[in-house]
Amino acid sequence: MRDLVESFYNDYHTKVQSRPDLYVNDQHVLTVTLPSNLLEYANASAGHSGFGSGARPVGIRRSVTNARQARDEIFSSVEALEKFILSSECNAEEYMNSVRERHFKLAGVQTDDRLVASNRNVVADKHGKNIFIKLGEVFSREQVQTAIDKLTINEFELRFGL
Known about the structure:
The structure is a single chain. It contains 8 helices and 3 strands. By secondary structure, it is mainly α. The chain has a 3-stranded antiparallel sheet with strand order 1-2-3, with helices on one face. The longest helix is centred in the N-terminal third of the chain and has 17 residues, at 2-18. It is elongated and about 50 Å long. The model has no long low-confidence stretch (mean pLDDT 81).
């Protein structure tokens, strides 16, 4: 995890030069948008980005006394950033599942009881044998694996826009 946090820390310090309000929602709200390889630490209060195949958790949201000062403290060192990330409730995936479920119901999408994990060949035959590798490159290997483990074939296809 240390390498991922350090990369995120360095990326932040590059971006904040041109975007001084980065992650500051308002005076009392801070939403740190996590990179895809750290999304397992996202919390539900940060929300999600969109619906359908591109929907993903956003990051970590906190109510604070002074958002800019809190952000600067969080990104003051790799250690401080790692501590902040580890303090998350890590409940975004559960939240995203409920969002997807509501979205599927509103969209009238029929889901089935077949888990993708037990029907990988069905997905591979339909979308090509390298579909899981391609999706892992676009999203993250962890996101694809979680989807394989938890979603039905229809949900998997909708989640990744297949």
